[in-house]
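Supplementary Methods S3. Complex input for the adenosine-5'-diphosphate-bound model.
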Amino acid sequence: MTIGVLTSGGDAPGMNAAVRAVVRTAIVDGMQVKGINRGYAGLLDEEIFDMDSRSVADILTRGGTMLLTARCKEFMQPEYQKKAADILHRQGIDGLVVIGGDGSFRGAKALAHLGIRTIGVPATIDMDIACTEYTIGFDTAINTAMDAIDKIRDTSASHERCCIVEVMGRRAGYIALYSAIAAGAEEVLLPETYDYDEEKIISHILENRAKGKKLHMIINAEGVGDSLGMAERIQRRTGIDTRATLLGHIQRGGHPTCKDRVYASMMGAKAEELLRDGKSNRVVAYYHGEYKDFDIDEALAMQKHLPEDMLVISRKLIR
Ligand code: ADP
Ligand code: F6P
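Predicted complex, serialized as C-alpha coordinates:
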Protein backbone atom coordinates (compact mmCIF):
# COMPACT_ATOMS: atom_id res chain seq x y z
CA MET A 1 0.00 0.00 0.00
CA THR A 2 1.20 3.52 -0.83
CA ILE A 3 0.02 6.60 1.02
CA GLY A 4 0.52 10.27 0.26
CA VAL A 5 0.89 13.21 2.62
CA LEU A 6 0.45 16.93 2.06
CA THR A 7 0.11 20.13 4.10
CA SER A 8 -2.44 22.76 3.06
CA GLY A 9 -3.74 26.20 4.07
CA GLY A 10 -1.83 28.42 6.52
CA ASP A 11 1.25 26.70 7.93
CA ALA A 12 1.41 25.90 11.65
CA PRO A 13 4.33 24.98 13.92
CA GLY A 14 4.14 21.22 14.46
CA MET A 15 3.11 20.37 10.89
CA ASN A 16 6.58 18.91 10.39
CA ALA A 17 6.15 16.65 13.42
CA ALA A 18 2.89 15.35 11.94
CA VAL A 19 4.50 14.71 8.52
CA ARG A 20 7.37 12.89 10.21
CA ALA A 21 4.98 10.73 12.23
CA VAL A 22 2.96 9.78 9.13
CA VAL A 23 6.11 8.82 7.21
CA ARG A 24 7.90 6.96 9.98
CA THR A 25 4.87 4.99 11.25
CA ALA A 26 3.87 4.06 7.69
CA ILE A 27 7.36 2.71 7.01
CA VAL A 28 7.31 0.69 10.23
CA ASP A 29 3.91 -0.72 9.11
CA GLY A 30 5.36 -1.75 5.72
CA MET A 31 3.81 0.96 3.56
CA GLN A 32 5.35 3.18 0.89
CA VAL A 33 5.03 6.95 1.33
CA LYS A 34 4.93 9.76 -1.21
CA GLY A 35 5.20 13.43 -0.27
CA ILE A 36 3.21 16.04 -2.15
CA ASN A 37 4.62 19.56 -2.18
CA ARG A 38 2.57 22.80 -1.95
CA GLY A 39 -0.77 21.30 -0.89
CA TYR A 40 -3.48 20.85 -3.52
CA ALA A 41 -1.64 23.22 -5.90
CA GLY A 42 1.36 20.87 -5.92
CA LEU A 43 -0.91 17.85 -6.27
CA LEU A 44 -2.41 19.35 -9.44
CA ASP A 45 1.12 20.09 -10.71
CA GLU A 46 2.14 16.53 -9.79
CA GLU A 47 4.91 17.64 -7.42
CA ILE A 48 5.06 14.17 -5.90
CA PHE A 49 8.17 12.40 -4.62
CA ASP A 50 9.11 9.24 -2.76
CA MET A 51 9.82 9.60 0.95
CA ASP A 52 11.79 7.37 3.28
CA SER A 53 12.74 7.58 6.90
CA ARG A 54 15.66 9.94 6.12
CA SER A 55 13.39 12.35 4.20
CA VAL A 56 11.97 13.51 7.52
CA ALA A 57 15.25 13.68 9.46
CA ASP A 58 15.86 16.91 11.36
CA ILE A 59 12.42 18.45 10.86
CA LEU A 60 10.74 17.67 14.20
CA THR A 61 12.07 20.79 15.89
CA ARG A 62 11.48 23.17 12.99
CA GLY A 63 8.51 25.48 12.39
CA GLY A 64 6.87 25.80 8.98
CA THR A 65 6.34 22.76 6.79
CA MET A 66 9.00 20.87 4.82
CA LEU A 67 6.28 19.96 2.29
CA LEU A 68 5.49 23.66 1.69
CA THR A 69 1.89 24.75 1.69
CA ALA A 70 -0.47 26.74 -0.51
CA ARG A 71 -3.97 27.97 -0.92
CA CYS A 72 -5.36 26.72 -4.21
CA LYS A 73 -8.60 28.28 -5.46
CA GLU A 74 -8.83 25.95 -8.49
CA PHE A 75 -9.22 22.98 -6.19
CA MET A 76 -12.67 24.20 -5.16
CA GLN A 77 -13.88 23.24 -8.65
CA PRO A 78 -15.00 19.66 -9.35
CA GLU A 79 -12.99 19.35 -12.58
CA TYR A 80 -9.72 20.03 -10.71
CA GLN A 81 -10.70 17.64 -7.90
CA LYS A 82 -11.26 14.97 -10.55
CA LYS A 83 -7.88 15.79 -12.10
CA ALA A 84 -6.23 15.42 -8.68
CA ALA A 85 -7.95 12.06 -8.05
CA ASP A 86 -6.74 10.83 -11.48
CA ILE A 87 -3.18 11.91 -10.63
CA LEU A 88 -3.33 10.09 -7.28
CA HIS A 89 -4.66 6.92 -8.97
CA ARG A 90 -1.96 7.09 -11.66
CA GLN A 91 0.73 7.57 -8.98
CA GLY A 92 -0.55 4.45 -7.21
CA ILE A 93 -1.48 6.43 -4.07
CA ASP A 94 -4.24 4.52 -2.23
CA GLY A 95 -4.67 6.86 0.72
CA LEU A 96 -3.91 10.49 1.50
CA VAL A 97 -3.21 12.35 4.75
CA VAL A 98 -4.21 16.02 4.53
CA ILE A 99 -2.70 18.17 7.28
CA GLY A 100 -4.52 21.52 7.46
CA GLY A 101 -7.68 23.29 8.53
CA ASP A 102 -11.39 23.12 7.71
CA GLY A 103 -10.89 24.35 4.14
CA SER A 104 -8.32 21.62 3.49
CA PHE A 105 -10.74 19.03 4.94
CA ARG A 106 -13.40 20.13 2.41
CA GLY A 107 -10.86 19.30 -0.29
CA ALA A 108 -10.12 15.95 1.37
CA LYS A 109 -13.83 15.15 1.47
CA ALA A 110 -14.12 15.86 -2.27
CA LEU A 111 -11.25 13.44 -2.94
CA ALA A 112 -12.84 10.80 -0.69
CA HIS A 113 -16.01 11.03 -2.76
CA LEU A 114 -13.86 10.37 -5.85
CA GLY A 115 -12.53 7.13 -4.38
CA ILE A 116 -9.30 8.31 -2.69
CA ARG A 117 -9.14 7.27 0.94
CA THR A 118 -8.42 10.47 2.86
CA ILE A 119 -7.74 11.37 6.50
CA GLY A 120 -7.52 14.94 7.83
CA VAL A 121 -5.17 16.07 10.59
CA PRO A 122 -6.17 19.39 12.24
CA ALA A 123 -3.43 22.00 11.94
CA THR A 124 -4.03 25.72 12.32
CA ILE A 125 -2.88 28.30 14.82
CA ASP A 126 -6.47 29.63 14.95
CA MET A 127 -7.90 26.59 16.88
CA ASP A 128 -11.12 27.06 14.92
CA ILE A 129 -11.85 23.42 14.03
CA ALA A 130 -15.02 22.33 15.79
CA CYS A 131 -14.45 18.60 16.26
CA THR A 132 -11.21 18.99 18.19
CA GLU A 133 -10.09 20.68 21.39
CA TYR A 134 -6.56 20.98 20.04
CA THR A 135 -5.14 22.00 16.68
CA ILE A 136 -1.49 21.71 15.74
CA GLY A 137 0.29 25.07 16.05
CA PHE A 138 -2.03 26.75 18.53
CA ASP A 139 0.20 26.13 21.55
CA THR A 140 3.30 27.56 19.86
CA ALA A 141 1.32 30.55 18.57
CA ILE A 142 -0.06 31.49 22.00
CA ASN A 143 3.35 31.14 23.61
CA THR A 144 4.89 33.35 20.93
CA ALA A 145 2.08 35.88 21.38
CA MET A 146 2.49 35.78 25.17
CA ASP A 147 6.26 36.45 24.96
CA ALA A 148 5.73 39.35 22.57
CA ILE A 149 2.94 40.82 24.72
CA ASP A 150 5.13 40.57 27.86
CA LYS A 151 7.75 42.67 26.06
CA ILE A 152 5.19 45.23 24.95
CA ARG A 153 3.94 45.37 28.55
CA ASP A 154 7.42 46.36 29.81
CA THR A 155 7.79 49.34 27.54
CA SER A 156 4.13 50.38 27.78
CA ALA A 157 4.29 50.34 31.57
CA SER A 158 7.46 52.47 31.59
CA HIS A 159 5.74 55.09 29.46
CA GLU A 160 2.39 54.77 31.30
CA ARG A 161 0.70 54.11 27.98
CA CYS A 162 -2.34 52.39 26.72
CA CYS A 163 -1.43 49.69 24.22
CA ILE A 164 -3.39 47.58 21.80
CA VAL A 165 -1.90 44.29 20.63
CA GLU A 166 -3.62 42.64 17.69
CA VAL A 167 -3.27 38.87 17.48
CA MET A 168 -4.18 36.47 14.67
CA GLY A 169 -7.06 34.01 14.56
CA ARG A 170 -9.00 34.96 11.44
CA ARG A 171 -12.64 34.97 12.64
CA ALA A 172 -11.91 33.14 15.92
CA GLY A 173 -10.88 34.60 19.29
CA TYR A 174 -8.94 31.68 20.80
CA ILE A 175 -5.47 33.20 20.44
CA ALA A 176 -6.77 36.51 21.82
CA LEU A 177 -8.56 34.95 24.80
CA TYR A 178 -5.64 32.71 25.82
CA SER A 179 -2.98 35.38 25.38
CA ALA A 180 -5.06 38.01 27.23
CA ILE A 181 -5.46 35.72 30.25
CA ALA A 182 -1.78 34.70 30.11
CA ALA A 183 -0.51 38.27 29.80
CA GLY A 184 -2.77 39.81 32.45
CA ALA A 185 -4.41 42.23 30.02
CA GLU A 186 -6.97 44.87 31.05
CA GLU A 187 -9.23 44.27 28.05
CA VAL A 188 -9.81 41.60 25.42
CA LEU A 189 -11.81 42.14 22.23
CA LEU A 190 -13.13 38.91 20.73
CA PRO A 191 -15.08 38.64 17.46
CA GLU A 192 -17.48 36.24 19.23
CA THR A 193 -18.45 38.69 21.99
CA TYR A 194 -17.31 42.26 21.22
CA ASP A 195 -20.17 44.75 20.94
CA TYR A 196 -18.13 47.46 19.15
CA ASP A 197 -18.91 49.98 21.88
CA GLU A 198 -15.66 51.96 22.10
CA GLU A 199 -17.19 54.33 24.65
CA LYS A 200 -17.12 51.46 27.19
CA ILE A 201 -13.42 50.92 26.53
CA ILE A 202 -12.67 54.63 26.92
CA SER A 203 -14.58 54.84 30.23
CA HIS A 204 -12.81 51.71 31.43
CA ILE A 205 -9.39 53.21 30.63
CA LEU A 206 -10.27 56.44 32.44
CA GLU A 207 -11.65 54.57 35.47
CA ASN A 208 -8.49 52.47 35.69
CA ARG A 209 -6.34 55.64 35.50
CA ALA A 210 -8.40 57.21 38.27
CA LYS A 211 -7.71 54.13 40.40
CA GLY A 212 -3.97 54.58 39.81
CA LYS A 213 -3.40 51.97 37.09
CA LYS A 214 -0.53 53.13 34.91
CA LEU A 215 -0.91 50.68 32.04
CA HIS A 216 -3.93 49.64 30.02
CA MET A 217 -3.32 46.68 27.75
CA ILE A 218 -5.94 45.70 25.20
CA ILE A 219 -5.62 42.41 23.34
CA ASN A 220 -7.54 42.73 20.11
CA ALA A 221 -8.39 39.77 17.88
CA GLU A 222 -7.77 39.97 14.14
CA GLY A 223 -11.48 39.23 13.65
CA VAL A 224 -12.25 42.58 15.34
CA GLY A 225 -9.30 44.39 13.70
CA ASP A 226 -8.85 48.16 13.21
CA SER A 227 -6.27 48.39 16.02
CA LEU A 228 -4.49 51.39 14.46
CA GLY A 229 -7.72 53.37 14.11
CA MET A 230 -8.77 52.37 17.61
CA ALA A 231 -5.43 53.55 19.07
CA GLU A 232 -5.81 56.93 17.39
CA ARG A 233 -9.37 57.36 18.68
CA ILE A 234 -8.49 56.27 22.23
CA GLN A 235 -5.52 58.67 22.37
CA ARG A 236 -7.68 61.53 21.09
CA ARG A 237 -10.48 60.87 23.58
CA THR A 238 -8.44 60.04 26.69
CA GLY A 239 -5.31 62.13 26.15
CA ILE A 240 -3.30 59.01 27.05
CA ASP A 241 -0.45 58.05 24.75
CA THR A 242 -1.67 54.92 22.92
CA ARG A 243 0.20 52.55 20.59
CA ALA A 244 -1.00 49.63 18.51
CA THR A 245 1.11 46.62 17.54
CA LEU A 246 0.02 44.01 15.02
CA LEU A 247 1.86 40.81 15.91
CA GLY A 248 1.19 39.28 12.48
CA HIS A 249 3.04 36.30 11.03
CA ILE A 250 5.55 36.05 13.88
CA GLN A 251 2.76 33.96 15.48
CA ARG A 252 2.95 31.35 12.73
CA GLY A 253 6.70 30.65 12.93
CA GLY A 254 9.27 29.35 15.35
CA HIS A 255 10.19 26.06 16.95
CA PRO A 256 7.08 24.15 17.96
CA THR A 257 6.50 23.79 21.69
CA CYS A 258 6.73 20.38 23.33
CA LYS A 259 2.92 20.11 23.30
CA ASP A 260 2.72 20.85 19.57
CA ARG A 261 5.47 18.31 18.79
CA VAL A 262 3.87 15.57 20.87
CA TYR A 263 0.23 16.11 19.86
CA ALA A 264 1.22 16.49 16.19
CA SER A 265 3.24 13.26 16.38
CA MET A 266 0.26 11.46 17.93
CA MET A 267 -2.19 12.86 15.40
CA GLY A 268 0.05 12.06 12.41
CA ALA A 269 0.48 8.51 13.69
CA LYS A 270 -3.30 8.13 14.26
CA ALA A 271 -3.95 9.26 10.67
CA GLU A 272 -1.56 6.60 9.39
CA GLU A 273 -3.28 3.96 11.58
CA LEU A 274 -6.67 4.90 10.13
CA LEU A 275 -5.41 4.50 6.56
CA ARG A 276 -3.67 1.26 7.47
CA ASP A 277 -6.98 -0.03 8.88
CA GLY A 278 -8.84 0.80 5.67
CA LYS A 279 -10.66 3.91 6.92
CA SER A 280 -11.49 6.97 4.80
CA ASN A 281 -13.18 10.37 5.01
CA ARG A 282 -12.17 10.79 8.69
CA VAL A 283 -10.58 13.62 10.70
CA VAL A 284 -8.28 12.95 13.64
CA ALA A 285 -9.30 14.94 16.74
CA TYR A 286 -8.45 15.47 20.37
CA TYR A 287 -11.84 15.36 22.03
CA HIS A 288 -12.76 15.12 25.70
CA GLY A 289 -9.15 14.33 26.56
CA GLU A 290 -8.69 11.51 24.03
CA TYR A 291 -7.43 11.09 20.48
CA LYS A 292 -10.44 10.14 18.37
CA ASP A 293 -11.62 10.40 14.80
CA PHE A 294 -14.78 11.77 13.22
CA ASP A 295 -16.41 11.44 9.85
CA ILE A 296 -15.34 14.51 7.82
CA ASP A 297 -18.94 15.52 7.05
CA GLU A 298 -19.87 15.23 10.73
CA ALA A 299 -16.74 17.17 11.73
CA LEU A 300 -17.43 19.98 9.26
CA ALA A 301 -21.04 20.28 10.45
CA MET A 302 -20.03 20.71 14.12
CA GLN A 303 -20.16 24.18 15.71
CA LYS A 304 -17.41 25.56 17.92
CA HIS A 305 -17.84 28.15 20.67
CA LEU A 306 -15.32 29.74 23.02
CA PRO A 307 -15.46 27.82 26.33
CA GLU A 308 -18.12 29.50 28.48
CA ASP A 309 -16.22 28.97 31.76
CA MET A 310 -13.13 30.69 30.32
CA LEU A 311 -15.27 33.62 29.19
CA VAL A 312 -16.89 33.95 32.63
CA ILE A 313 -13.55 33.81 34.45
CA SER A 314 -11.86 36.10 31.92
CA ARG A 315 -14.46 38.79 32.72
CA LYS A 316 -13.33 38.68 36.35
CA LEU A 317 -9.60 38.64 35.57
CA ILE A 318 -9.38 40.94 32.58
CA ARG A 319 -10.51 44.37 33.83
P1 ADP B 1 -7.41 25.90 6.02
O1 ADP B 1 -7.23 24.51 5.54
O2 ADP B 1 -6.33 26.32 6.98
O3 ADP B 1 -8.82 26.17 6.53
P2 ADP B 1 -8.08 27.36 3.59
O4 ADP B 1 -9.48 27.65 4.00
O5 ADP B 1 -7.28 28.44 2.92
O6 ADP B 1 -7.16 26.91 4.81
O7 ADP B 1 -8.14 26.08 2.64
C1 ADP B 1 -6.95 25.49 2.13
C2 ADP B 1 -7.20 24.95 0.76
O8 ADP B 1 -8.19 23.90 0.82
C3 ADP B 1 -7.80 25.95 -0.23
O9 ADP B 1 -6.84 26.78 -0.82
C4 ADP B 1 -8.41 25.01 -1.26
O10 ADP B 1 -7.40 24.49 -2.10
C5 ADP B 1 -8.93 23.87 -0.38
N1 ADP B 1 -10.35 24.10 -0.10
C6 ADP B 1 -10.91 25.02 0.72
N2 ADP B 1 -12.25 24.97 0.70
C7 ADP B 1 -12.57 23.99 -0.19
C8 ADP B 1 -13.80 23.45 -0.67
N3 ADP B 1 -14.97 23.92 -0.26
N4 ADP B 1 -13.74 22.45 -1.58
C9 ADP B 1 -12.55 21.96 -2.00
N5 ADP B 1 -11.36 22.44 -1.58
C10 ADP B 1 -11.36 23.43 -0.69
O1 F6P C 1 -5.31 30.58 9.46
C1 F6P C 1 -4.09 31.01 9.96
C2 F6P C 1 -3.90 32.49 9.71
O2 F6P C 1 -2.63 32.87 10.22
C3 F6P C 1 -4.99 33.39 10.30
O3 F6P C 1 -4.83 33.60 11.67
C4 F6P C 1 -4.82 34.62 9.46
O4 F6P C 1 -6.06 35.30 9.34
C5 F6P C 1 -4.40 34.07 8.11
O5 F6P C 1 -3.92 32.77 8.33
C6 F6P C 1 -3.35 34.90 7.43
O6 F6P C 1 -3.13 34.35 6.19
P1 F6P C 1 -1.93 34.78 5.22
O7 F6P C 1 -0.70 34.06 5.68
O8 F6P C 1 -2.39 34.35 3.88
O9 F6P C 1 -1.74 36.26 5.35
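The chain has a mean pLDDT of 98. The chain has two domains: 2-137+256-301, 139-252.
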